[in-house]
Design a protein that fits this description.
Its EC number is 4.1.99.12. Belongs to the DHBP synthase family. By secondary structure, the protein is of the alpha/beta class. The protein folds into 2 domains: 198 residues, DHBP synthase (Alpha-Beta Complex); 179 residues, Rossmann fold (3-Layer(aba) Sandwich), CATH 3.40.50.10990. The protein has 14 helices and 14 strands. The chain has a 7-stranded mixed sheet with strand order 8-9-10-12-11-13-14, with helices on both faces. Strand 9 and strand 10 form a beta hairpin. 43% of the residues are buried. The C terminus is likely disordered.
């Protein structure tokens, strides 16, 4: 049961004046945004941060702070510079524990924001709308001892249900708030509210104005994209599973299974070498670079041999090249769940564009490249010769090289795995 006020770190005007931005903690190459480490530290200390999502999404900046650190002053500050519509992102488990069902039976929000019923804490509040009352309700939502009966419904605070996996599953402010509070070592409950433009109060503030706002109030300014990248380079994204010998027409491989920690997708690494060889290179890491192909699943091409794309041809050629190498691996990344679709969606896309002779093979996403890098690192590879195909050459030679380097893997060469698929070439002639 929620029992009352705790000792909370606040944000008085004096607090803000005494905590100027430390430029030494900001990447010199880009003063527009601050480091994720700074933001996590500020959240832990009870400060607010400003978080921006992608330009092709809402393209807005939200004030975000930890719910358990909410004070009257901090809530009043947030209301003063925002839309005033304070929301409290929480995990699904906490929403269930506090009996916070969806606000409406069918979510029609264009971005899928999962609003729940609104609440006020029952004790210690009056109208529920004041900064003091909302701060108390917010702290109660973050209190692990609170129970459903502690709240009246409807109210003046809007809980939000965050997706499991945080910004790696959904790049929204809801998930960013839960991620930041969790990373700060606090209860994974945050507060978010959109910042309104002071230059034009009829619209939301955008990046240049948000930078000025953050500087004026001593707040860190970060992006959700940077938070996702921070997590991908620091958290374990895959877990190794079973190992088996797999004889194929391209040679015999050792197949090592992996399960994604965020979405549960299952991937496989096909290692070249004699049957019974170790499933990883950790026992005796190869001195020469390993031949590596990172392949994104294309069921119609890989399994059915569709001539609408060259995926199956590219995969077979890569397996031949890896099998012939002294040391090599094909990292096979499953697609189902990566984009929330799968085979039926693929068939629907093909049906909508029957006039196209060839389909574009999938290139690995940024998130999937991090998965592949962690699989390679787990297998003990530190130096690789990366095979590409026409569809993913630019991605793998640029972003792919950079991402592998972040996981301690040096790409010494980028080379084409094979020429074009003759069947696809004939179809497009």
């Amino acid at each position: 049961m929620f029992t009352g006020d705790a000792q909370i770190v606040g944000h008085s005007a004096q607090d803000r004046r005494s905590h100027p931005i430390d430029d030494s903690r900001t990447p010199a190459a880009d003063r527009r945004f601050d480091s994720i480490d700074r933001a996590i530290g500020d959240i832990a200390a009870g400060k607010a941060v400003v978080v921006i999502d992608d330009e092709d999404r809402e393209n807005e900046g939200d004030i975000i702070f930890a719910a358990e650190k909410a004070t009257t002053e901090l809530v009043a500050f947030t209301v003063r510079y925002s839309s005033g519509y304070l929301c409290v992102p929480m995990t699904g488990d906490d929403c269930d524990r506090l009996d916070l069902p969806p606000m409406y039976r069918s979510n029609e929000d264009p971005h899928g924001t999962a609003y729940t019923v609104t609440v006020d804490v029952r004790t210690g509040t009056s109208t529920g709308i004041s900064a003091r009352d909302r701060a108390r309700t917010i702290r109660a939502l973050a209190d692990a001892d609170s129970v459903a009966a502690d709240f009246s419904r409807p109210g003046h605070v809007v809980p939000l249900r965050a997706r499991d996996g945080g910004v790696l599953r959904r790049p929204g402010h809801t998930e960013a708030a839960v991620d930041l509070t969790r990373l700060a070592g606090l209860n994974p409950v945050g507060v978010v509210c959109e910042i309104v433009s002071e230059d034009d109060p009829t619209t939301m503030a955008r990046t240049p104005e948000l930078r000025e706002f953050a500087d004026a109030h001593g707040l860190a300014l970060i992006t959700i994209a940077d938070l996702a990248e921070w997590r991908r380079t620091r958290e374990q994204l895959v877990t190794r599973g079973p190992v088996a010998n797999v004889p194929t027409t391209h040679g015999t491989f050792r197949a090592v299974g992996y399960t994604g920690a965020v979405d549960g997708r299952e991937h496989v690494a096909l290692l070249s070498g004699r049957p019974g060889a170790p499933a990883a290179a950790e026992a005796a890491p190869p001195s020469a670079p390993a031949t590596v192909r990172i392949h994104s699943e294309c069921l119609t091409g890989d399994v059915f041999g569709s001539t609408r794309c060259g995926c199956g041809h590219d995969l077979g050629s890569a397996m031949d090249a890896v099998s012939a190498a002294d040391t090599g691996v094909v990292v096979y990344l499953r697609e189902a769940g990566a984009h929330g679709e799968g085979l039926v969606h693929t068939l629907r896309s093909l049906a909508l564009d029957e006039s196209a002779a060839a389909a574009t093979p999938p290139a690995p996403t940024t998130g999937d490249l991090h998965l592949a890098a962690q699989m390679l690192a787990d297998l003990g590879f530190r130096s690789v010769r990366l095979l590409t195909c026409e569809a993913d050459e630019s991605v793998l030679s640029g972003t792919g090289r950079d991402i592998l380097a972040k996981h301690g893997i040096d790409v010494v060469e980028v080379a084409p795995a094979v020429g074009g698929n003759p069947d696809t070439a004939a179809a497009t002639a």
